[in-house]
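Lab notebook page, bench 4
Experiment: in silico fold of construct C2
Operator: M.H.
Input chain length: 758 residues
Purpose: comparison with the prior construct
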Amino acid sequence: MAYKLSAELEGHTSDVRGLAAFGSDMLVSVSRDNTGRIWKRTGPHTFIEDSVLVGHDKYVSSVVVIPPYDKYPQGLIATGSMDTTVCVWDAANPGTPVQRLRGHTGNVCALAVSRDGRTLVSGSWDKTAKVWVDGECVHTLRDHEHAVWGVLVLDDGSVVTASADKLIRIWRDGRLVHTLTGHTDCVRALAATAGGFASASNDGSVREWTVDGPVRELHGHTSLVYAVAAADHILTSGGEDRAMRVWHDGRLQNTVLVPSMSVWAVAVLSNGDIACGTNDGLIRVFTQDAARVADANAQKQFEEKNAVFALSAKTMGDVSLGNLPGPERLKQSGDSDQVIMIKDGSQVTAHQWNVERKEWIQVGHIVDAAGQTQKQVFDGREYDYVFDVDIQEGAPALKLPYNATENPYSAAQRFLERNELSLEYLDTVADFITKNSDGVQLGPQQPHVDPFTGGSRYVPGQSQAGAGVASDPFTGNRYVPAQTTSVYSPPSEYIINRAGNCSAIVKKLAEFNAELAQSSDTHLAVSAQDMQHVGELETTVSEPACSVLLQLVQAWPVDRRFPGLDLLRLAVAASPLPLTCHAADGKTLVALVIEASNIESAFVADSPLSKSDEINAMMGVRALANMFAHPQGIDVAWAARSRILSVLDGSWSRATNKNLVTSLSNLYFNLAIAAAQKGDDDEGLNILSACSRFLEHTDNADAQLRLVNVFGVLAAKFQLCKDSARVLGDETIVILGIMGKSEAVKAAAKAVGAFLSV
């Protein structure tokens, strides 16, 4: 009998990465939005969001429900996070964690609990698993070579771990007793079954095991398999092929397709319903019980979303697009849950057979059937792709350029740095590129990359041998472009922050202007016509608008300047016109920005920075960095380099706001690129000296990456800087190569360190 939609649970604002069921009436989800959420059933096909778990300061990766006992009669919930901790929550009163378990040094991506609830096991990107009893770590399991993605506690107390090193290990009392092999790529998840346990892997398979060895392989997924869950006789899995698949006695029984590319998490409720968490932030529950099926309208909306969902042909299995049947195939019946592709002219669509209705239901359309051949231009350069990326509702889409022959991670990092976004999104952006660019293959065929493990992306019919991959200490086989020489290639593009909701900023500016008009400072308010000029910045940068901005960022009270500075920052990135504007007293734009944002005095004062100081300084620094968006701006900023460096000197020791620290590092990075293009070795050394002190001081991952790259840029250009870098930062670079705050920092530090050593 087919599974049908029972409920959609909406509340998370980012990918749902973990899901756990408790009985038939409660689900707990965790997400990249840094929260967990408890959902409770209110009807046959309705759930409500009962509680939000707020305690982690980075995204939450894993969750498990701990059975009730005397002290906690409704049980506990454990959540693991990128912040390296495990939080334990009282399910009856989840306002704050009752425990926080520390010890891991990487993302806690897997959790499991014993049947009696006393033993908790955690797995981490730090390549270890930890066994916790009553909140104390009693064992650390260390033999895996890469990230531990799956953990499990068996009824006899044995612990099972699964890793990106492709191995499954069995432990008793903290000692390794058995190693199971068979998977050909990263093992992502584990679940207990009646006779042993099951595993899911990037190799596209689900496998069943006993502690002594393999039982059988289950094939049906057409891409990476991220999750597996079991209860009673139900075994379900989910993966990158947008499918939940249900297995019975080793056979594929049901396939449930969802309108979301990545099924990150799955769970089985005690009433036999199944649930999944996906990259669109939703949890969906499916049932075979007619009493719990969603109403007709919800079913129709779900089918409509599936019908228009865009698919890559490479997630649909080993199918030749040139030999697809036409619409006449839809007149023939199919097997239960069978999925086929139909070609009608230039359009290719996917359809699934519905046994009950005895008809084919459209479940998606193929977006890369023909490939893409026309180049697109961005910032004066040609790319195979220029994607539009929406990061904020109402804000203009950001442009993400990508060439099919480059490493998706390189393009993702370039995009994040240009738009001053956190590098925590590196995997997500790289994954977006990989999934949306499969239609074109230019130059040498490069392996696909799984953004969360670095392992080769599964392509049906293709060998999974690791050609072209190199070992990454954190997540497994991360893609590294083939290299024939050890020549270091430093970054060469400026980081420009174009992200911003212009209409919202203009609205805030108008609000402040109205307040000033009604205050004792009414003379500072600008006219309606001037505000109209400012509003035009949403579509074009004009001289009148720039003049108004320069006026108000100088004259308005300090705590009212930030919208004007923010608009000035966007205007500078969009057009060189603001660079030609001068203040009434003849100040250049650089001098005006430094003065209006109060950078100089804020960074030398003895007292802590106020909130207004922080925001204004950040906007000012971003405006200075954005001057490098145009050749005219590069000339203006470089001419004022001594002034900028003087103002910035020591700023990092006063800045505590993460975004301000990142903005400072971006400005130093842009100055380094300009020095390599326009300066000499002495000027490069001045920048290098400041950045070496900044690098020693900061633990901000984004800033570390920029500053490490400053060393690379200047050392690659100037021999004096290379010699000096060995003295100023060699030890710091080596340490960051081992203990950097992110994998990107470690990789950059290793590359720069290797270059400095030759």
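Observations: The chain has a mean pLDDT of 83. DSSP finds 18 helices and 38 strands in the chain.
Next step: discuss at group meeting.
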